[in-house]
């Protein structure tokens, strides 16, 4: 595997780079599954609120159906060299029941408010339990930067 000049980052730097990407990026690949219909993957816009990812989809979409039936999801930022993968459980909020601060932050980021649409939308919040991040082969070891909902560089520094 070629490393294309990648240099291994320390855990704190890797975590900070990941948080910066979560705060600044727009798109995420959302992977869901359904016991009868199998896996499904779709790109969605997302908002990172500092603790969780917020996405929005049509209330009748395959993604909405799947997360209602099976809330475990995987999320991936769209870069195959600077990889960020998240796992967690989805919580669903109908568009008229979503926490106001989350809906307003989502609308401010994208210039679109799903609550004003005629068709119903579903807000999906995923608080990550596991986050993996790496840039090339030098960072494969130590790629789990969050485990059981705790950032590993913070867990390591707390003794």
Describe this structure in words.
Helices cover 25% and strands 40% of the residues. It is an alpha+beta fold and 159 residues long. A six-stranded antiparallel barrel has the order 1-2-3-6-5-4. The protein is globular and about 50 Å long.
Brief description of this entry?
Helix content is 25%, strand content 40%.
- The backbone outline, from C-alpha atoms, is globular
Count helical runs. 4
SSE ordering: HEEEHEEHEEEH
Strand order across the largest sheet: 1-2-3-6-5-4
Calculate the mean pLDDT score and round it. Answer: 93
**Category from helices, strands and their pairing:** alpha+beta
Largest sheet: 6 strands, antiparallel, barrel
Helicity level:
10-25%
Estimated share of beta-strand residues: 35-45%
In total, the number of strands is 8
State the end-to-end distance. Answer: 35 Å
Low-confidence stretches: none
Based on CA atoms alone, the radius of gyration comes out at 17 Å
Keyword list:
159 residues; alpha+beta; six-stranded antiparallel β-barrel; 8 strands; 40% strand
Provide the fold topology:
Elements: H1 11-24, E1 27-34, E2 38-48, E3 53-58, H2 62-69, E4 72-76, E5 82-94, H3 100-110, E6 121-135, E7 144-147, E8 150-151, H4 152-157
Antiparallel strand pairs: 1-2, 1-4, 2-3, 3-6, 4-5, 5-6, 6-7, 7-8
């Amino acid at each position: 595997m070629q490393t294309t000049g990648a240099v291994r980052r320390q855990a704190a730097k890797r975590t900070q780079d990941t948080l910066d990407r979560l705060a600044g990026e727009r798109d995420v690949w959302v992977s869901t599954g359904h016991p009868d219909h199998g896996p499904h993957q779709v790109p969605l816009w997302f908002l990172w609120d500092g603790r969780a990812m917020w996405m929005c989809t049509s209330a009748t979409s395959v993604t909405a159906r799947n997360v209602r039936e099976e809330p475990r999801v995987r999320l991936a930022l769209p870069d195959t060299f600077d990889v960020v993968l998240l796992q967690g459980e989805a919580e669903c909020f109908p568009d008229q029941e979503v926490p106001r601060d989350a809906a307003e932050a989502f609308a401010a980021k994208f210039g679109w408010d799903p609550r004003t649409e005629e068709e119903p939308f579903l807000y999906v919040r995923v608080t990550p339990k596991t986050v993996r991040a790496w840039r090339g082969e030098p960072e494969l070891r130590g790629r789990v930067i969050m485990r059981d909902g705790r950032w590993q560089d913070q867990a390591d520094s707390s003794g």
